[in-house]
């Protein structure tokens, strides 16, 4: 079951999500399919950005990796998440309670969307960072304190010697977020799941935190999954982008390919709805307007590919009626080299599966300015 390289001789991903499906019992009627057939992989020193609107399944995907989905009401319906742990490849979905606890906060760390709910109000900040360190690293109290102080300094918490004794309620939202990041990074994870790591932070701090994550990624060979709504953050901080909609991956590409040539109507809408600095439009175009424009749906067939992007608001055209295969009527097609789009499975394309989305690509690190 190990993660084999995509091309022979190439490196291996740290984690590969393969056909993940997660649903929830909502107490009435059919289960809510929160995630449906998600595929992605993340390589060492790579940041994979996961973008998409609220409720599309970004957090559920990340939390599945650590088995943090409450079950019930949640359920893993299909798939595997193969992680290259220190002990070799493991499927994170099938690890027992003790094994997954060893992975959590140690080999895989997560920065949560809501920092207040993940800090314990009755313990000091220092106790909580140190506990995380002591749990997984073979160090004494004194050394753990030093690591904690350094981590606090790294994430820009002023006067760490004083603040290490403070309680969470004495910190602002932005500071609590930084504490969470300090905790996550102090444990030297191989994979960092950063769920909206910067929404509670002001712009300067946000840039600093993302820079810090990038630095650590380079120096430690860490892999990063960066969940965000902010396409500016994506453009500046990621190597590969995975766009999700309604629990599915709808587009997967290198960051510049995605911005230069978005192919799925949803991605086009997402990019077109960013306000432009010098545009003279009176109002922003909504995503719905863009995807309702039928011309958008003709673009892929025009390219001679004979496929139409999957879109839940439109039925597929009669001439390209879906032909459900074993995996349903939806799949990811590599429509250009290293560029995947979610499409309807049709008679024309149903017989061949293109390779699963998987890119080891990384933007080369910025060269150091010479001789300063
Ligand atoms: N514990 C739960 N019980 C029931 N449904 C849930 C639970 N957690 C998530 N869901 C459902 O799963 C779907 C995906 O949720 P998820 O939190 O992954 O969205 P998201 O992409 O992270 O959104 P946001 O950008 O708002 O954080 C939603 O429809 C949500 O209602
Ligand atoms: Mg979320």
Bound compounds, each kind once, are: adenosine-5'-triphosphate, magnesium ion
Secondary-structure-derived class = alpha/beta
What is the top-level CATH class of one domain? Answer: Alpha Beta
Radius of gyration: 22 Å
What's the name of the CATH homologous superfamily of one domain? P-loop containing nucleotide triphosphate hydrolases
- Read across the widest sheet, the strand sequence of neighbours is 6-7-8-3-9-10-12-11
Proportion of β residues?
Answer: 15-25%
Q: What's the total number of strands?
A: 12
CATH fold group of one domain = Rossmann fold
Name the helicity range.
25-40%
Mean pLDDT: 83
Distance between the termini: 49 Å
Major sheet size, sense and barrel closure: 8 strands, mixed
What is the N-to-C order of secondary-structure elements (H for helix, E for strand)?
EEEHEEHEHHHHHEHEHEEHHHHEE
Unreliably modeled segments: none
- Please work out how many helical segments DSSP would assign: 13
Shape: globular
């Amino acid at each position: 079951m190990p993660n084999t390289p995509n091309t022979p001789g190439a490196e291996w991903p740290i984690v590969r999500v393969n056909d993940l499906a997660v649903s929830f019992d909502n107490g009435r009627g059919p289960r809510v399919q929160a995630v449906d057939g998600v595929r992605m992989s993340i390589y060492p020193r790579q940041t994979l950005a996961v973008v998409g609107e609220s409720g599309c399944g970004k957090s559920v995907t990340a939390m599945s990796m650590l088995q943090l989905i409450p079950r019930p009401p949640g359920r893993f319906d299909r798939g595997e998440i193969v992680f290259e742990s220190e002990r070799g490849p493991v499927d994170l979905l099938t690890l027992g309670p003790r094994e997954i606890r060893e992975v959590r906060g140690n080999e895989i760390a997560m920065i949560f969307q809501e920092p207040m709910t993940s800090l314990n109000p009755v313990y000091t900040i220092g106790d909580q960072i140190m506990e995380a360190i002591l749990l997984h690293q073979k160090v004494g109290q004194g050394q753990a304190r030093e690591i904690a102080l350094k981590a606090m300094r790294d994430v820009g918490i002023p006067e760490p010697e004083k603040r290490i004794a403070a309680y969470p309620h004495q910190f602002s939202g932005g500071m609590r977020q930084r504490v969470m990041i300090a905790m996550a990074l102090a444990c030297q994870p191989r994979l960092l799941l950063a769920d909206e790591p910067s929404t509670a932070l002001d712009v300067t701090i946000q840039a600093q935190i993302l820079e810090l994550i990038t630095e650590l990624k380079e120096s430690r060979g860490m892999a990063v999954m960066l969940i965000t709504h902010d396409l500016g953050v994506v453009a500046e901080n990621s190597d590969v982008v995975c766009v999700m909609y309604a629990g599915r991956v709808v587009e997967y590409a290198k960051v510049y390919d995605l911005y230069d040539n978005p192919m799925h109507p949803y991605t086009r809408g997402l990019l077109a709805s960013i306000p432009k600095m010098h545009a003279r439009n009176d109002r922003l175009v909504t995503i719905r307007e863009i995807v309702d424009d039928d011309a958008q749906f003709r673009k892929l067939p025009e390219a001679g590919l004979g496929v139409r992007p999957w879109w839940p608001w439109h039925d597929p055209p009669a001439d390209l009626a879906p032909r459900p295969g074993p995996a349903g009527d939806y799949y990811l097609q590599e429509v250009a080299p290293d560029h995947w789009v979610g499409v309807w499975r049709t008679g024309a394309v149903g017989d061949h599966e293109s390779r699963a989305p998987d890119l080891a690509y990384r933007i080369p690190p910025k060269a150091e300015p010479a001789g300063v």
